[in-house]
Amino acid sequence: MEKSFVFKFLGLNFDLTGMIGSTLMAAVVLFVCIWLSRKVELRPNKKQNVIEYLLDFTDGIVKDNVSDPDARKHLSLYAFVLFLFIFCMNQLGLFLEVKVGDNMFVKSPTADPVTTMSFAMMTLLLSFTFGMQKFGVGGYWRNYAEPVSFLFPINMIEEITNFLTLSLRLYGNIYAGEVLLTLIGNSLAPSFGITTMVLAAPLAMIWQGFSVFIGSIQAYVFVTLSMVYIGKKVTKE
């Protein structure tokens, strides 16, 4: 796989590849939402039906996994934006890649563990926030020591494993999809000339279609697990 383009500024490393992909997909999500929600009518048109369906879909994920009404009220929009953003970022590398030399400038941002860990960290911080609002700071931390106090370190380790599994599941699936597409296009297709090029073309198309499905499922899984994780923090067991 090609390297991401990283530059240094004030002693810090900045991944330009991830920044370009994330910014591009943020602009796409913003444009799509504005386009679909223009001219909202009492009798919904086709575009309005699409965005209302998406809102109902993500709102259903929140309602199914978060029992606290106050948390639900604040999480509905978060789940909607998170789902669209991750879905679009998952698909970017399947249809658009920009490479200069050995450096990749545009690819799926979620094929980078730093991006997926950032999303997982947002979920982690939200779970802490809602949990402390629900039970207070002391009450929230006491939950880690229930039903017996020696479970506190075990529950803290569980926090770390939840963070890693949430982020690395998404990263692994998207990264693997891009690796296989690269192998089909760069290794298999030119290996035996025109014969393998003919065979590689439908194989790449089939895998792209399957990757679109996987990217959609992974966006759904990430949002669902995020809501499950937050829902547990606002529910006293």
TrEMBL record:
Keywords in alphabetical order: ATP synthesis, Cell membrane, CF(0), Hydrogen ion transport, Ion transport, Membrane, Transmembrane, Transmembrane helix, Transport
Stored InterPro entries: ATP_syn_F0_a_bact/chloroplast (IPR045082), ATP_synth_F0_asu (IPR000568), ATP_synth_F0_asu_AS (IPR023011), F0_ATP_A_sf (IPR035908)
Top-rank taxon, per record: Bacteria
CDD domains referenced in this protein's UniProt entry, alphabetically: ATP-synt_Fo_a_6
Subcellular location: Cell membrane; Membrane
GO cellular component terms attached to this protein's record: plasma membrane; proton-transporting ATP synthase complex
HAMAP family, alphabetized: ATP_synth_a_bact
Function: Key component of the proton channel; it plays a direct role in the translocation of protons across the membrane.
Family: Belongs to the ATPase A chain family.
Protein name: ATP synthase subunit a
Source organism: Lactobacillus apis
